[in-house]
Amino acid sequence: MQASLALAGASVLPKAWAAPANQPLGVQLFTLFGQIEKDVKGNMQQLAQLGYKEIESAFSFLPGFYGMSAKEWDGFLKSIGLNWVSHHVIGAPFKPRPGMDTSRMPKFLNLRDNSDEVIEGLAGTGLKYLVCANIPVETRKEMDEAVEILLKVGKKAKAAGLTFCFHNHDAEFKAVDGLRPFDLFSKEIPTELLKFELDLGWASKAKVDPVQLFQAQPGRFPLCHIKDFDREFKEILPLGEGHIDYARIFAAAKQGGLQHYFIEHDMPKDAFASLKTSKMAFDRL
Fold it and tell me: Could you tell me the pTM of the whole model?
């Protein structure tokens, strides 16, 4: 039922769009993974030329923030008309897949071990949101450890004037010993210490209705990720080319508390072609 609600009306998506009027659109820079380092400033200027207004940063193969300090990065983005809204950090130490080449990878800061360094490094910028990009939740032990980490970082972020959010994939909606990680986080961590960046695509893949999440926890979702999927939820697609009913989801945006919208396309064949298509779809209001 939830899946059908999320997909209903997808065939008329271009005509039935209901995103908030005049809402600036942002990009999660993981969309440019493996490409951005080749020409950081040129890539950012291309995003600005496409009409994107907001940026959510992620980890980079370059030191600091894409080869710059936080203040330098913030200042550069402002100089080309982009607003740095949020930053992703992994929740626990990075574990490479078997056989993965890590020779080019820098040290990735994580919230379990480096939260003070992360938060102090953002001081003096206009950044408003710190986001946990992911955290292990495959066992109940990992889930309980995740709660401890998120609670600790939430307190530190609040003291620093930042809003702390958790970004989901589909794993957080899979029950472990009868309990979904998302529900555990929602219950055990006060809303003033943890908000959610709801990835609308991954939630839909998990057969979860974002509108029902908004209704259950009004105002707890200031950020969202936008991606589309094919009918079988096997392939990520540019916005408007898939079968998620974003018209229905965006119609409930106010109840959810959505304030910032980020396009994210994981490992696209052509990042800028995808971003152009998604921007045009979002603008078709």
Answer: 0.92
